[in-house]
């Protein structure tokens, strides 16, 4: 019997993830049931397709595979989510039923890490401030003289997941010192990464650049609050590309008003960031609309790597980008 692979990605977005040679490789393991619409499937449409499907491919905006859908999909063996977190795309019962779940988080991590390096260098060299000064006709020299190098700085991480580890790899040529807070990281692993593990408050006090990599779970809600922000040293850059809720945003705004620290933010407590947010006007903060991990290159990288994993799965090889039920609990 022919193996069926349901592809939820809508028609007008398919080529952004699956290049022609990748589609051909996918066809080698099964018959593709493509979404013919420039919209997501409806629940009824998806359920009807899953009835005899062996695999389902999804991405941002795709319908979640609920418990009811799992009940109607007795042949389903594999779910490949061509995005990051799978927490809201597949019911937890999928893991109990032995369904293999894949995520494109690894490919996104590479883009986010490169984006973090860009933010650090842009803030350190005062790119935004000098550009605005040049455009306004004001002398740029005083601002430019305040610029500083990344080289030799102490960089602190709050959590050491995939993105943080990729940032460390990219940052090594700058000869920086790495410190981190992560209660789940084994010291042996941290030593391999070249990172000194410290209590949270020590990381906040000692780092000259701080990058947050926390999941959005109850324990991390406003984990960086008013007291924690006051521990950060003058001139420090605080970067958040994880989730907006991990910082008390109002407390951060109050701290930024003092011009004591800098911030670079890709995520916010309310998204999209309200037009009247003071974060849009403060000169010592860079703001971006939650785009650190999404670009044409990362989407194609996600598609290629997960199709490789699908191919491995049906050729009896170990997948490289599987998600465990334990890891699911830490996803946002």
TrEMBL record:
Pfam families: 2-Hacid_dh, 2-Hacid_dh_C. Gene3D superfamilies: NAD(P)-binding Rossmann-like Domain. This is Hydroxyacid dehydrogenase. The keyword NAD applies. The keyword Metal-binding does not apply. Keywords: NAD, Oxidoreductase. Residues 117-292 form the D-isomer specific 2-hydroxyacid dehydrogenase NAD-binding domain. It comes from the Bacteria. Signal peptide: none annotated. Residues 19-323 form the D-isomer specific 2-hydroxyacid dehydrogenase catalytic domain. GO terms for molecular function: NAD binding; oxidoreductase activity, acting on the CH-OH group of donors, NAD or NADP as acceptor. Belongs to the D-isomer specific 2-hydroxyacid dehydrogenase family.
């Amino acid at each position: 019997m022919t193996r069926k692979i349901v592809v939820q990605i809508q028609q007008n977005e398919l080529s952004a993830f699956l290049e022609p040679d990748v589609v051909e490789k996918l066809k080698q393991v099964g018959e593709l049931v493509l979404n013919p619409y420039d919209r997501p499937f409806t629940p009824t449409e998806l359920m009807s397709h899953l009835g005899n499907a062996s695999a389902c491919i999804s991405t941002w905006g795709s319908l979640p595979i609920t418990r009811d859908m799992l009940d109607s999909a007795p042949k389903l063996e594999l779910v490949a989510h061509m995005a990051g977190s799978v927490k809201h795309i597949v019911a937890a019962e999928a893991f109990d039923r032995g369904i293999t779940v894949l995520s494109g988080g690894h490919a996104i991590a590479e883009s986010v890490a490169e984006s973090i390096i860009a933010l650090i260098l842009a803030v350190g060299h005062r790119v935004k401030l000098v550009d605005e000064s040049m455009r306004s006709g004001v002398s740029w020299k005083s601002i430019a003289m305040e610029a500083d190098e990344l080289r030799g700085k102490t960089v602190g991480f709050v959590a050491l997941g995939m993105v943080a580890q990729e940032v460390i790899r990219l940052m090594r040529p700058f000869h920086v010192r790495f410190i981190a807070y992560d209660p789940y990281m084994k010291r042996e692993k941290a030593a391999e990464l070249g990172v000194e593990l410290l209590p949270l408050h020590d990381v906040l006090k000692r780092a000259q650049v701080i990058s947050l990599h926390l999941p959005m779970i109850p324990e991390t809600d406003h984990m960086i609050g008013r007291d924690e922000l006051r521990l950060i040293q003058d001139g420090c850059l605080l970067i958040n590309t994880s989730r907006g809720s991990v910082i008390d945003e109002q407390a951060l705004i109050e701290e930024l008003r003092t011009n004591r620290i800098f911030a670079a933010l890709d995520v916010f407590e309310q998204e999209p960031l309200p037009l009247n947010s003071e974060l849009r006007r403060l000169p010592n903060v860079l703001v971006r609309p939650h785009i650190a991990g999404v670009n044409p290159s990362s989407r194609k990288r996600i598609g290629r790597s997960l199709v490789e994993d699908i191919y491995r799965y049906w050729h009896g090889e170990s997948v490289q980008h599987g998600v465990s039920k334990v890891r699911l609990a830490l996803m946002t």
